From TrEMBL:
Pfam families in alphabetical order: LacI, Peripla_BP_3
Entry-linked Gene3D superfamilies: 3.40.50.2300, lambda repressor-like DNA-binding domains
InterPro entries listed in its UniProt record: HTH_LacI, LacI/GalR-like_sensor, Lambda_DNA-bd_dom_sf, Peripla_BP_I
The HTH lacI-type domain, residue ranges: 4-58
Keyword Transmembrane helix among UniProt keywords: no
Single Gene Ontology MF annotation: DNA-binding transcription factor activity
Identification of the protein by name: LacI family transcriptional regulator
Amino acid sequence: MKRPTIADIARLAGVSKGAVSYALNGQPGVSESTRRRVLAIAEEIGWNPNGAARALSGAPSHTVGMVLHRPARILGVEPFFMELISGVEAELSARSYALTLQVVADQPAEIAVYRRWWGERRVDGVLVCDLRVDDPRIPVLSELTLPTVVVGMLGESAELVSVWSDDAAAVVEAVEYLSALGHRHIARVGGLPELRHTAARTAAFEEVCRRLEVAPALTISTDYTGEDGARATRRLLSSPRRPTAILYDNDVMAVAGLAVAHEMGFSVPADVSLVAWDDSVLCQLVHPPLTALSRDIPAYGGHAARQLLDVITGLPASSVQDETAHLIPRGSTAAPPSATGRGA
């Protein structure tokens, strides 16, 4: 089927191609009735602007970009990103914006995508996820002056706008809860150590364990996959002084850890308590259901999208703190064996 062109619109509207161009780009030179007729015909025949021509004219693309440096197989099974994207999409579609999502193999490839999008005017702005310690993307995006909102805490001196959640406070709540149950040997299965939110969680975990005299504050780093979460759980439950409670950095690893505990003959929570980060349906479908740190992730994505649209349209926008994850106790946590008379 032939793609509709400006010439087709001009023929159907009975005007020149120049008049069609003025009408489609919101420029003066045509009457309001002609503009409305041209726009109606363009919509009726399914006309879309050519990307290269739009870039030359400087017209907005009404598209927001997101580049993710994670294996596609992880994105397919991790509820967090699916829920985050659903919130972003809901907000964008309500404002007639689209989302362009690209998965890349490494950070240089991600930066190359931003430069290409900027040069081609492919997107009006970008959402940046998985903030790293000393992240090289931030100065590049600042230099390009590409409208950007970072999903994560940047720090007070950063030029870009961010939407972030207090990961440290959530860690403290989880460890204080386990300590109140009587646990004195708590381990953590963490995510990628180079991520800024992982570093914040690790620092908070170590500090609260020292304060509550919970030792040792052991964190095993993983790549967030169920396979890595399972391996870390086997290592912890096979150690001479196994922990009585384990905190996981995502729900996928917590579900995998629960399966490993059952496989090794441990009862949850009688022998070991488990806590997941970022509650999801997965946490509620397993047996026992997993105690989890919960927050409204689609709302988090929607908030980030609204901030970005404000930046794009020139409205005042500043970094804001979103909802802190809060603990929802379920059947996977209880007093440790020593507190119930079972023995370690």
